[in-house]
Amino acid sequence: PIAIGMSRIHSLPPELVNQIAAGEVIERPASVVKELVENSLDAGARRIDIDIEAGGSRLIRIRDDGGGIDAEDLALAVSAHATSKIASFEDLERVGTLGFRGEALPSIASVSRFALTSRTAAADSAFRIEVDGGKPHVQRPAQHGIGTSVEVRDLFYNLPARRKFLRAERTEFNHIDDLVKSIALARPGVEFRLGHNGKVVRLFKPSATEDEAARRVSEVLGEEFLRNSLRVGHDGAGMVLSGWVGLPTASRSQADQQYFHVNGRLVRDRVVAHAVRQAYADVLYHGRHPAFVLFLELDPQGVDVNVHPAKSEVRFRESRLVHDFLYRSLHEALAEARAGAGPMPDA
Ligand code: ADP
Ligand code: MG
After folding, report:
1. In angstroms, how far is the first alpha carbon of the chain from the final one?
2. Three-state SS at 120
3. Is 104 in the pocket of ligand 1 (CB under 6 A)?
4. Looking at the domain that runs over 14-204, which CATH code has it been given?
5. What is the mean pLDDT of residues 301-318?
6. Cβ 85 under 6 angstroms from ligand 1
């Protein structure tokens, strides 16, 4: 047995609490980008600018034109368990925003050199607060339009073991790029600009109509994806499923084009994966993977998002119902295509 250094129980200092929380949620620069972009979307941003330097290890800067934060709330925004998004247990049962844990900003700030600048429509000036490895500095007036900017420099500078695990600049940036693409898919009405080391890498212009939502999909996944997929639109059992499913003939050797969103949140879920696999069972060779971009909308009360710190998993309260609805919708769509096109060459 291991000898345990005995001491009295004590509460941990807040910076350490935040660093422990950061260990759960902030794995790499892309996790920072995910949390910050989700905050911008929750704030109603129509335009989000993302600037990255050195794969995110030197700088991650996100600027949005959302509602902003009141000057009096800036210090709270960077303190643990403070959120404007839920206030009660009932709210937790019907989360309508991407965030709700009140942990992202304090976690990120505890493992970086961090600055938050924000201005609301009601304020005459913006305010900026800086946090260095978890310690907030004075807040002061700053120049900024309505909206919010967050700067994250030198991620993990105070956790050398963690920083050592960052991969090559290119690899880290690719993770960020993939993440931005997956979020952009779900928000065709929002403009996203992603820059790396001073060069614009992605520019997704906002789309207002259904057809333009298709344009966003083709911008992100390529014309090829749209040409080889079927449009899905089904509702029933209080749920709406929309999006695109790939034709069996356009199946892939890897599951690299699978995007499933539940109420606007990209998730990985076994119930969903099973329903999709079953729907394609008769039309795909073993070992092939369908491509799809799907959006499921249901009553927030029907889905628990408080499953995992990274919020990329959900639990459906009536998982059987969801499974069967998905299976039927996809099966029908594929069957119609089959009837229309004659026998599938791949089947
Ligand atoms: P959560 O998103 O779970 O509430 P965060 O730590 O990510 O927790 O953010 C804390 C709070 O700071 C949010 O609830 C929100 O009120 C505010 N906030 C963070 N980012 C933004 C932003 N880009 N625009 C407006 N408000 C923001
Ligand atoms: Mg958040």
Report:
1. 59
2. coil
3. yes
4. 3.30.565.10
5. 92
6. yes
